[in-house]
Design goal:
Number of helices: 15
Organism: Roseomonas alba
CATH topology of the largest domain: FAD/NAD(P)-binding domain
Family: Belongs to the class-I pyridine nucleotide-disulfide oxidoreductase family.
Structural class: alpha/beta
Domain FAD/NAD(P)-binding: 5-308
CATH architecture of the largest domain: 3-Layer(bba) Sandwich
Radius of gyration: 25 Å
Helix content: 25-40%
Keywords: Disulfide bond, FAD, Flavoprotein, Membrane, NADP, Oxidoreductase, Redox-active center, Transmembrane, Transmembrane helix
Transmembrane segments: 6-27
């Protein structure tokens, strides 16, 4: 008899969700974690980064209070206080992910490295665990680029950035993706000088119309953006570290943050012992997240590489994976992963949110007859009243008005993204959103206004005007 029904490797967002569902259904669950419970999201990712961004926004709001007739002195940054706020946010959420909570659910929590020994056996902490099903949810780690000289200089990743005892004097950031830009803006607003080096364009997967306002906002915050610029080496410097750029420029700073991507944590799992196929992108699965080579094993979160889709390093994808695995593995129901309505957000100020494919993605995929609907957030009454107006809601629809993708930039669009996730995911007609009654005044009215742009030309067409004129003559 197997020792456990479900063995879960990794107590990050994906692993915890699977373990909670399985334990809640009364199954025998073993949860293996060698590091901190909660994984990257709680300890070094989503929670601390958003806490740091909140502190930075508070400082910037104080600087801009004069717009409302309120005069405040330049804010004094207490770095120890900022760090205490970040640590406090982690501590407040940690009990939800704690070992005690999961033991209370009935799960066996094993605080040790886990590796496969056979197709149905995991070894951890000097013990062997036979399982009926296993879920690999070991997550991902920062990519360390093969940059000459990197081994000779101190550098940071998101895993070590939040441990700094003092605010960096000049933070060099290699990589202009979401992590790089969020940390660039946060540190600039908290008093650092910041330079971002990006070999292509910042947040290059997003819609160019949405990137422009973010680029301008970062420049206004004092961030130096070097786009289309490649670093070719690094070396020690009296100030701390130097990046050597492709054109020979020597860029010096006190700290270097590497933010060039993530890679699955495959090392040490001994997947071969369980005949689990993997590539550098992660554990190879089908669309139900089941291993293509060992039907007892599933993968979830950053480490999963579903056929043709590739990994997605988002906490909300971990939740999506956990729900799909519960359906497929526990209830034996049909399940097929789709990212058609996947939202992604860069939490700069202003935010960028993308739900589903961009206009460029759709055209590259062969879609024709597309209509692009736009509504400027300059015309949103709530944002005007709060002095935050600016940004865009951009919707891409097909000939029949089916919503295919939404590109958003502006204050609060991270909260607005859920509307479009629901619309695309549930394949709701655009008329549902155009006819919805939104509370006034809210930023979400812009979603309704953008949807209405599809119907306005038809409603105000000459034939409709003639019909209305005729109807008005009726008694």
């Amino acid at each position: 008899m197997p020792d456990v029904d479900v063995a879960v490797i990794g107590a990050g967002a994906a692993g915890l969700s699977v373990a909670a569902i399985a334990a809640g259904l009364g199954l025998r669950v073993a949860l293996f974690e060698r590091g901190r419970m909660g994984g990257d999201c709680l300890n070094t990712g989503c929670v601390p980064s958003k806490a740091l961004l909140a502190a930075a926004k508070a400082a910037e709001d104080a600087r801009r209070a004069h717009r409302f007739g309120i005069r405040l002195p330049e804010p004094e940054i207490d770095w120890d206080g900022v760090r205490a706020h970040v640590a406090g946010a982690i501590a407040a959420i940690a009990p939800n992910d704690s070992e005690e909570r999961y033991r209370g659910m009935g799960a066996m929590v094993v605080r040790a490295s886990a590796r496969f020994a056979e197709r149905d056996v995991i070894e951890a902490g000097g013990r062997r665990f036979h399982f009926r099903r296993a879920v690999v949810a070991a997550g991902s780690s920062p990519v360390i680029p093969p940059l000459p000289g990197l081994s000779e200089v101190p550098f940071l990743t998101h895993e070590t950035l939040f441990d700094l005892p003092e605010c960096p004097g000049h933070l060099l950031i290699l990589g202009g993706g979401p992590i790089g830009l969020e940390m660039a803006q946060a540190h600039a607003r908290l008093g650092s000088r910041v330079t971002v080096v990006e070999s292509a364009a910042i947040v290059g997967r997003d819609d160019p119309e949405c990137i422009r306002p973010v680029r301008e906002a970062l420049a206004a915050d004092g961030v130096t953006l070097l786009e289309g610029t490649r670093a070719v080496a690094t070396e020690p410097d009296v100030d701390g570290v130097a990046l050597i750029l492709e054109d020979g420029t020597r860029l010096t700073g006190t700290h270097l943050l590497l933010a060039v991507g993530r890679q699955p944590r495959l090392a040490g799992l001994d997947l071969e012992a369980a005949a689990v196929q993997a590539s550098p992108r992660g554990v190879i699965t089908d669309r139900s997240l089941r291993s293509v080579s060992n039907r007892r094993v599933y993968a979830a979160g950053d480490i999963a590489d579903p056929e043709g889709l590739g990994p997605r390093a988002f906490t909300h994808v971990c939740s999506q994976h956990a729900a799909l695995i519960a359906r497929a593995m526990l209830f034996r129901l049909p399940a097929r992963l789709s990212y058609d309505a996947l939202p992604r957000v860069t939490y700069t100020d202003p935010c960028i949110a993308q739900i589903g494919p961009t206009e460029a993605d759709l055209r590259a995929g062969g879609h024709t007859g597309l209509t692009v609907l736009r509504w400027p957030l300059d015309e949103n009454d709530r944002l005007v009243a709060e002095g935050r107006a600016g940004g865009l809601v951009k919707l891409t629809v097909d000939r029949k008005g089916k919503l295919l993708g939404a590109s958003l930039v502006g204050p609060g669009v991270d909260e607005m993204a859920g509307i479009f996730t629901l619309m695309i995911g549930r394949r709701l007609p655009l008329s549902v959103l155009a006819g919805a009654v939104m509370p006034y005044p809210t930023a979400q009215e812009a979603a309704k206004r953008a949807a209405g742009e599809f119907f306005t030309p038809k409603l105000l067409s000459p034939p409709v005007k003639r019909v209305v004129g005729w109807l008005m003559r009726l008694p």
